[in-house]
Amino acid sequence: MTPDPRRFIPKMDEILQCPAVQQAHEYLAPHRVRTVIDAVLAGARAGSLAPAHVEEELASRLESLRPYSLRPVINATGVIVHTNLGRAALPPAAVDALVAAASYTDVEMDLDTGLRSRDRGRAAVAAVLAACPGAEDALVVNNGASALLLATAALAPGKEVIISRGELIEIGAGFRLPELIESTPTRLHEVGATNRTHPADYERALGENTGAILKVHPSNFLISGFTSSVTVAQLRQLTDLPLIVDIGSGLLSPDSVLPDEPSASEALRDGADVVLFSGDKLLGGPQAGVLVGTKEAIAACKKHPLARAVRIDKLRLNALEAALSTPDNAVHRALHLSSARHKERTEAIAAAVGAEVVEHDGRVGGGGAPEVPLAGWAVALPEELARPLRMGETAVVARVSHGRCLVDVRCVPESQDGELIDAIRAVM
After folding, report:
1. Looking at residue 366, what is its pLDDT?
2. What is the pLDDT of residues 33-52, one digit of tens each?
3. φ/ψ (deg, to 5) at 320
4. CB 161 within 8 A of CB 214
5. Which of 351, 421, 285, 358 is nearest to 78 (CA)?
6. Is a pLDDT exceeding 90 seen at residue 5?
7. Please, how many CA atoms are within 13 Å of residue 10, restricted to the half-sphere of its CB?
8. pTM metric for this prediction
9. Which terminus of the chain is more exposed, N or C, with fewer CB under 10 A?
């Protein structure tokens, strides 16, 4: 009678002493190691793995594990602020800032006196104000949605906020602006029509129960044709009530590449009390919600109980300060990439892998400048290479369009061109 091969599966005490398991305990928690061991043993008991190969399989799986799971990828889509890929790529100074803040810091301590400081995030706020001189004060919170929630709750507590129907947008993952705001006692008063709203619509809606006016840049869609909207300056002329402006993308001052994208400096100049935007879009920093505006309006936001609930952590405070204080970032470089250099790099990669160069329009992404093409170039590969590129040792995310896999280097640092060529060759 043939003996059951499962009898030869290594015992647990033997497995725990094998070199691969001992080494894994140096960088993985015991429960993570045990999960791998249990999975390998389950395969052996089910007969899908020979007992003689248990230790080999165990070593292979443990060597491939790390204490974290997010993988770095090369963004070859041509979309600069790619939400699925983590939005803005941080500049080196911001990466260093994350590491510097990872241990104990003086985030809430005055090192001179040794006492607690209540001015949390003061350096990040100073960096925001230096980059946006039209603002009297600033506040940094967890993300853009938090900034909007806090501003409406603090400046129109228990009252109505007037907003155009054409600005009742839905943001990522199905979250809708009206539902977000009305999760607090604040209520929205919709005016105008989807495509056209006039100053008179706001004027008729103003009343004793009005707490503020909110203007939201649609960001991720564009309405064209028979349209009209009301500017920040026109809204300011209607009332002295708080005027909240959500510009979304984080453009601090006008940019010729994006002529229709609103900027924080323009909104403040035109009379906004508070301007809101994200830190990880055109600003080029980490995820954050930034509020800039008058001292009175920002003070009201700081004092509101929600301010504590949406507080940002020390890592991103430091990274935001660094992103604003460094001379350049990946978003700015990709947005202003020279057409000649873009084509030159694309041609070099195409020649190295035996592919053709085609015209390709990039995008800002992240809800910024919808429908604004960023003219450029791409390496055209067979569509079936898209998945192998994503799953390769160096993960490359390209764009699949019209039966082709398009590799656009707009968002790829030049230092990674060689790595990109190797990744393409590996799947061809």
Report:
1. 84
2. 999 999 999 999 998 999 88
3. -65, -45
4. yes
5. 358
6. no
7. 20
8. 0.92
9. N
Q: What is the pLDDT of residue 1?
A: 60
CB 355 within 8 A of CB 383: no
Cβ-Cβ contacts under 8 Å for 366 (sequence gap 6 or more): 80, 81, 82, 83, 87, 88, 249, 278, 280, 281, 282
The mean pLDDT value of the chain amounts to 93
Cα–Cα distance for residue pair 221/138, rounded to 1 Å: 28
- Tokens coding 246: 């959500």
Please answer whether residues 292 and 269 qualify as being in contact, where contact means their C-beta atoms are separated by less than 8 angstroms.
no
Q: What band does 357 get if pLDDT is binned at 50, 70 and 90?
A: very high
Supply 80's token pair. 């600069």
Measured distance CA(243)–CA(275) in Å, rounded: 9
The single residue listed with the structure tokens 């602006």 is 177
Confidence of residue 387 (pLDDT cuts 50, 70, 90): very high
Query: In the predicted model, is pLDDT for residue 28 greater than 90?
Result: yes
